Amino acid sequence: MPFGCLTVGEKKEYHNPSDVTDKYDLGQIVKSEEFCEIFRAKDKATMKMYTCKKFLKKDGRKVRKAAKNEILILKMVKHPNILQLVDVFETKKEYFLFLELATGREVFDWILDQGYYSERDTSNVVRQVLEAVAYLHSLHIVHRNLKLENLVYYNRLKHSKIVISDFHLAKLENGLIKDPCGTPEYLAPEVVGRQRYGRPVDCWAMGVIMYILLSGNPPFYDESDDDDYENHDKNLFRKILAGDYEFDSPYWDEISDSAKNLVARLMEVDQDQRLTAQEAINHEWISGGAASDKNIKENVCAQIEKNFARAKWKKAVRVTTIMKRLRAPEQSVSKPAVPGAAADPTAPQASANPSAPSSAAGPDGAPDATILINKTHGGRCCAWKNIHTLEPFQILIITNCSGFFLINQSETMHN
């Protein structure tokens, strides 16, 4: 029987919490993510270590949906470059997912530790990820959140493989998808433009990843003050929509034309003209030996430390899974708009800013998506900074927030 299906009158059976603790020792929380808490877990019989993701059902429908979706997707896949699902338990209050444990470093850390780093090294990383993406796409699965933070080395051995993690946003492509989600800097133009989209968004993200790995710079950036998020994000989205990036000198001077060609074809604004994952694998820079063996570490590492050690992307602006189209206008009539909505008293109120506009309608008549951006991780959310509108998005900036908040009409959700 498919996951989650019950016949009429059938009573659903749950695991007891003791089923989990009888088999596994759960350690301390390693980190908290948007929908779940992550633990290290040890199998009591084999002493083998795993990653445990715990989803609390009481945290809301979106959390329950994310857990079910990740279980569904991970049960479908088996690939050497994808962390495998090992065990699943559903109690009345929680979902427990046990996955392979990746003990290696993130790609950035690996690059910084190398004595020698070349296009050929980048090609090896990109090839492994593309092979996993091509496999997912053959199953009509769209990952939707490919980014450098989700690429890790499986272990610390010299020739460790790369693995993709975090599948809670992955989705089966049953027709084109319309709900926007992902991480802003990696979003494809069709997502920013709120068009229907599918597997090509993963290929765009691969182009962004490849661009960063070869230059140490993000392809889309803004020179405005780091604290001026309003103009920064307006310009970011405009540049993505226009495909406005360059192979800047001197950062790209030593990079081969073949590498630039592959980046450009993966970051084609028209999704119908964009390379597929399999076509990218067949490109000469991946499979034909065209990747240069020249050492580019000095330039790349200098830019990585400049752009990412400050955590401008990796920590300061971590917006995932918080772009969602609001309900249709006719459904919103019975609900108050965001600024005047009755909300959880513990949640920050948008109406605290008297100049904040109400949610505006997009070109097709549907309300804009709302994006909430967290500036720092420390402490509780203490203030709304501002609201501004960029068609088709309305962007709400918050400061000093330990979690992300999504306002969907009068509904408030936080991790």
TrEMBL record:
Protein kinase domain span: 24-286
Q: Ranges of Low complexity compositional bias?
A: 339-367
Question: What UniProt keywords are attached to this protein's entry?
Answer: Calmodulin-binding, Cytoplasmic vesicle, Membrane
Q: What is its main location?
A: membrane
Q: Which Pfam families match?
A: Pkinase
Where's it found, cell-wise? Answer: Cytoplasmic vesicle membrane
Topology in the lipid bilayer is annotated as:
Peripheral membrane protein
Cofactor(s) named in the record = Ca(2+)
Q: Which GO terms describe its molecular function?
A: ATP binding; calmodulin binding; protein kinase activity
Q: Which GO terms describe its cellular component?
A: cytoplasmic vesicle membrane; synapse
Residues annotated as region Disordered? Answer: 329-367
Q: Give the record's subunit note.
A: Interacts with calmodulin, in the presence of calcium.
Q: What does this protein do?
A: Does not appear to have detectable kinase activity.
Which PANTHER family is this protein grouped with? SERINE/THREONINE-PROTEIN KINASE (PTHR24347)
Q: Which family does it belong to?
A: Belongs to the protein kinase superfamily. CAMK Ser/Thr protein kinase family.
This protein is called CaM kinase-like vesicle-associated protein
Could you tell me which species this protein originates from? Xiphophorus couchianus (Monterrey platyfish)
